[in-house]
Amino acid sequence: MTAWTPEDRTLLTDAYSLVLTAGDAGQPGVEVGMVVVDGALHVRAYRGVRSHWYRAARQYGHGTIRVGAVRRDVLLTTDGLEPAAGLDAAFRAKYGPVAEALVASPEARAATIRIDPASARSPEDFSLPGW
To answer: Would 51 disulfide with which of 47, 74, 115, 122, CB 3.0-4.6 Å?
Structure first.
């Protein structure tokens, strides 16, 4: 597994949300809130494991994220996740009262996804703004 670079973590930490697309190109994307905890990127489906996009992430295990003009191929992990210490607190700190939907219910916690870069950057990635 490839780790996020310091520049990636800064971009992700500073952004309010990202657009996640599970699967291959052509699938619809969903804008979601996210947090970086201990260098790992996490999102949650506030509607729980029945959420359409959570089920797609689980089915495909890969996809893309987009933050502004930056697009990145990613791996999506839904099974066997150990909850990152401070994940709930990170959502609360970033999103304030809105975060309660992401952290308060057992359904949302059960629908946590860890997002990792799919591979090292290719030369094409460097042509995107922000990289």
So the answer is: 47
